[in-house]
Amino acid sequence: MEIITDISTLRARLQCESEIAFVPTMGGLHEGHLSLVQRAQQEADCVVASIFVNRLQFAPTEDFAQYPRTLEDDCKLLQKQGVNVVFAPDDKDIYSVQQDFLIEPSPLANTLEGEFRPDFFRGVMTVILKLFNIVQPQVAVFGKKDYQQMQLVREMVRQMNLPLKVIACETTRAPDGLALSSRNRYLSNEERIEAARLFRVLSEIKRAAESGNGDFRRLCKDARENLTGHQWQVDYIGLHQRDTLAPAGVGDLDLVALAAARLGKTRLIDSLEISVKH
Q1: What residues does each domain of the chain span?
Q2: pLDDT digits (tens, 9 = 90+) for 93-106
Q3: Left, alpha or beta for 136 (phi > 0: left; psi -120 to 50: alpha)?
Q4: Which residue in 70, 135, 222, 247 is deepest, having the highest Cβ count within 10 Å?
């Protein structure tokens, strides 16, 4: 496995590759990231994983300085997994000059995560487009936990006519259902036990909706009350159409439950796809 930190060296290394599968990450790797790598390995002989904590997507009050930076351990995991190239640039490599050109996402970016984290997706889409341009993959792999981000990446690829396929992978979970996340390490022992409640309330929404309960508003209200009754601060929890992420309505069949909430100082997000029968 090669670890490359500058753009010109990476481009020279990848010039001879006929097909590249790309897994962008911010580090702090766990089994969820490795599942994305495994999926990428099914798509191409050359797999590139990037490790870069993107300052553009953090608000001044967020955890940019505290975000896990574990490059040595991350590289050991990726080497064991059989990744071909790790791209681990510094901030000055990605933003060598002031980044005045920014990607303005679709209006979808102003809802859900975008409502509570203004400019978040502008920073995310800008760095993803830069990484796509640097790596020039034919395949890019993302996880469904960040469902809104995944849909925005798909739409950017479509509208920008980028010659690559975006693959979505199922969320990797702990035995109690908690979605694996680099931020889970912020949780105290007690909070870690409680954190599994987020998956449980989404699972209850899924069970009820797939059993024929069409009162989506009530299902989400009950889920919110369950969380707030156990000291969670809920940003949002709702049922949405999978493709557009518009609020789900009567007759919609392919849905996704989306939630974001704080437990102590840790903000957790999760998603769960739901298939409703007529």
Answers
A1: 2-169, 182-270
A2: 999 999 999 999 99
A3: left
A4: 135
